[in-house]
Design goal:
Layout: H1 2-23, H2 30-58, H3 62-88, H4 134-144, H5 165-175, H6 180-191, H7 196-207, H8 214-227
Helix pairs in contact: 1-2, 1-3, 2-3, 2-4, 6-7, 7-8
């Protein structure tokens, strides 16, 4: 049942993803910027849910199902918000075509049926969307972290293996603005730090964490456990 629900949610998400992605190419408003942000979050949700379903097929850990259900609900909420923004977004207004003046001069010679001149349909040029590298970068994160979610491996060979798959997606989204490659580089530097104080300095200079950000607090707690 969970697998079917996840599959339906993924199909629903892909449908809205492509429809809205091409729509925002022709309209540039604050509303569209909000839609782009939601699309980025939905794309990460889709990738995360794929990894979750693969893990569930080979692992009976109940934690995986809990996280997957939460992911599905989160994706549904974002899709509903995206649909509301789409309904509120302005539509492109095509100016009416000027009517051609009627020809009143009589024509000499044999009469031929005159076909009305129909102007070419106006086309809105849409730039080809950039190649999305987020999915490829997330594959790097998936390959470098543990397949078991919500559990940290202790002791871990390096800092990357101390971060669960679920946390890695959360950190990429909330601390590194969706840039998985940058997170990998920062995690590598943190893992090579000689002490906790040095690691904290690197983290503060690279991420500029907000003490009220739950993801930042969890990341710092993870560093403390790793260097303890």
């Amino acid at each position: 049942m969970l697998y079917l629900s996840a599959k339906v949610t993924l199909l629903f998400a892909f449908r809205y993803f492509f429809i809205i992605y091409f729509y925002i190419c022709s309209v540039n408003t604050d509303c569209v910027k909000d839609m782009q942000t939601l699309l980025n979050d939905i794309e990460l949700d889709i990738q995360e849910l794929k990894c979750l379903m693969q893990a569930i097929s080979s692992d009976a850990n109940p934690t995986l199902k809990i996280v997957a259900k939460r992911n599905i609900q989160q994706m549904k909420a974002r899709l509903e918000a995206l649909q509301e923004l789409l309904e509120e977004a302005p539509t492109a207004v095509v100016p009416p075509l000027e009517e051609l003046p009627a020809v009143t001069t009589p024509l000499t010679g044999p009469a031929f049926p005159v076909e009305p001149v129909v102007p070419d349909t106006m086309k809105l040029d849409c730039e080809e969307p950039e190649t999305v590298h987020t999915a490829e970068a997330l594959q790097t994160v998936v390959a470098s972290v543990s397949p078991i979610l919500a559990e940290r491996i202790k002791p871990a060979k390096d800092l990357r293996h101390a971060i669960s798959l679920n946390d890695s997606f959360r950190f990429v989204r909330e601390l590194f603005a969706g840039d998985a490659a940058r997170m990998n580089e920062v995690v590598r530097r943190l893992g090579e730090a000689p002490s906790l104080d040095k690691a904290m300095d690197i983290f503060a200079s690279e991420v500029h964490p907000d003490e009220e950000n739950e993801a930042a607090v969890d990341f710092m707690e993870l560093l403390k456990k790793y260097f303890s």
